[in-house]
Amino acid sequence: MGQDALFCVSDSLYVIFLYSYKFKKMPIYRKFKDKLKNK
Question: Which UniProt key words apply to this protein (predicted)?
Fold first, then answer.
């Protein structure tokens, strides 16, 4: 269970990194924060 959660987190971070690299001026982190808040 712990391994699965870790993979999920690292996968999300990797996606965020790719998006922020592609769209440097877009505040991706803010959208991610809102997603976490809504959960």
Answer: Membrane, Transmembrane, Transmembrane helix
